[in-house]
Design brief:
Order of helices and strands: HHHHHHHHHH
Number of domains: 2
Number of helices: 10
Structural class: mainly alpha
Number of strands: 0
Distance between the termini: 58 Å
Shape: globular
Helix content: 55-70%
Radius of gyration: 21 Å
Strand content: under 5%
């Protein structure tokens, strides 16, 4: 699931990383903080490095909050994916000049997928907060995770459309019209 990102980030075991193996997972988090993200000062990483501690999950939860990750420890795969995305952003930020002329192989495919999504066409899928936002919505709506966040977004769209009754849509449109009318009335009174 994470192989491509791990390879791009020069991880020590990109092809065999198993997020479900607790020891491997904890070692990965420590290595990742030490070598890649470096959010904490070296002297502040002790609790995270103590992978055999029964309190390690609590320290990891604190770490996730400290790096502004919206996922919890029980969402291990999502948290790892989010941390990998953070590192990609940090890596790019540190070496933007190095990457400025590179064009991804799938750029045309991503553009076509975005254009074909119809109501989703105006979303900025390159925004660093886009993928974590889709993951958070998927978790909230209990949509199954997928490697491609655009596929997950399409599944969310379908779920929402199927669950919106005509009555709910009519009520939302009525409320929208009332708000627009109230705004236009307020604007004319001010003038």
């Amino acid at each position: 699931m994470f192989r491509c990102k791990l390879m791009a980030l020069d991880s020590h075991n990109p092809t065999s990383f198993n997020c479900k193996d607790e020891t491997e997972f904890r070692n990965f988090i420590v290595w990742f903080e030490d070598q890649k993200i470096r959010h904490y000062k070296i002297e502040d990483r002790g609790n995270l490095r103590n992978i055999h501690s029964s309190d390690w999950p609590k320290f990891f939860e604190t770490y996730l909050r400290d790096v502004n990750c919206s996922f919890k420890i029980q969402d291990q795969q999502e948290a790892v994916d989010w941390l990998l995305g953070l590192d990609v952003r940090l890596e790019y930020g540190d070496n933007a000049e190095k990457y400025k002329d590179l064009v991804p192989d799938n750029a045309k495919t991503a553009d076509n997928a975005t254009k074909n999504a119809e109501p989703l066409t105006h979303l900025d899928v390159n925004n660093p907060d886009f993928k974590p936002g889709v993951m958070a919505m998927a978790n909230l709506l209990q949509v199954q995770c997928h490697d491609d966040h655009l596929v997950m977004l399409k599944a969310i769209q379908i779920l929402v459309q199927e669950h919106l009754t005509q009555e709910a849509v009519a009520k939302a449109n009525q409320t929208k019209e009332e708000v627009e009318a109230a705004i236009s009335c307020d604007c004319t009174t001010v003038l």
